[in-house]
Design goal:
Blueprint (H helix, E strand, L loop, with lengths): L2 H4 L7 E3 L1 E2 L2 H9 L4 E4 L1 H7 L10 H11 L5 E5 L8 H13 L4 E5 L5 H14 L4 E5 L10 H14 L3 E3 L6 H9 L5 E4 L7 H6 L4 E3 L3 H18 L11 H5 L8
Parallel strand pairs: 1-9, 2-3, 3-4, 4-5, 5-6, 6-7, 7-8, 8-9
Helix pairs in contact: 5-6, 6-7
């Protein structure tokens, strides 16, 4: 079992914050987060591209190249793999592993479950040690049908997924029921209106992702700060010093 997989088998859930650039990842690592993911929305928005439209393959690979040699374990959100062809998705996985990524998040977008399973098979055949977190969007994009969710998760487990992800699910009874039927760790997307991390751990959840929350909060803080200054108010909230942000970037060779 890899070090990243080990983090999914502890008594407390792995809280996986998500970065969208080098500074956000380095700052999170400096706060003691040993594993960091990427947010597809943050990567897409920063590049002026749509999220979930297979438009950010190059931007995602470029970010992974920047982050892959960091002091933390890196898991990369690859949307649906940027292709419907399992072999092409496997090639993306190879490229990510080559630059230091230890895991990927692969979403089905409520498309064909059998095609998604084929992508998982292809990735695990190409890079056996890469942690594949297989996401189903039955709650995120669909109506949260429990049978369909279980059917898809079972297919993804059988295909070799190392973990499964059900964003949008916050009901405690449904979470607990899913955990009982799984043979791999369950990942839940944190919601401020949903269960706490501690409660999710009590329910059997072993990974709690923050998704695009940090990116959206950062953008919200920037807008509030600009509005406060324009209105003559003193900005609130934490503000890292210039020197602190500068220190997040590696020194240039002399």
């Amino acid at each position: 079992m890899t070090a990243f997989a080990d983090l999914h088998h502890r008594d407390v859930p792995l809280v996986l914050p998500t970065a969208w650039d080098h500074a956000s990842a380095a700052a999170l690592a400096a706060r003691g987060f040993e594993a960091i993911g990427t947010t597809s929305l943050g990567v897409a928005a920063a590049a002026g591209l749509p999220d979930g439209a297979a438009a950010t393959r190059d931007a995602t690979l470029a970010l992974a190249l920047t982050l892959g040699n960091g002091s933390f374990l890196l898991s990369v959100d690859v949307e649906g793999g940027f292709s419907d062809d399992p072999d092409e998705v496997a090639e993306v996985a190879r490229e990510l592993a080559a630059v230091g990524a230890v895991g990927i998040n692969l979403e089905d977008g409520l498309g064909s479950a059998s095609r998604h399973a084929a992508k998982i098979v292809a990735v695990k055949a190409a890079v056996p040690g890469l942690f594949v977190n297989a996401r189903t969007d039955t709650y995120w994009l669909g109506d949260g049908d429990e049978r369909e969710t279980s059917r898809r998760l079972d297919a993804y487990q059988q295909a070799g997924a190392d973990g499964v992800f059900v964003p949008g699910l916050t009901d405690e009874n449904r979470i607990a029921a899913l955990v009982k039927g799984l043979g791999v760790p369950l990942n839940i997307l944190y919601s401020p209106a949903g269960p706490t991390v501690t409660r999710l751990g009590d329910l059997g959840v072993r990974r709690v992702s923050l998704g695009s929350l940090l990116y959206r909060r950062a953008l919200g803080a920037a807008l509030e700060t600009a509005a406060d200054i324009r209105a003559g108010r003193t900005p609130r909230g934490a503000t890292p010093a210039y020197e602190e942000v500068q220190a997040l970037s590696p020194s240039l060779p002399t």
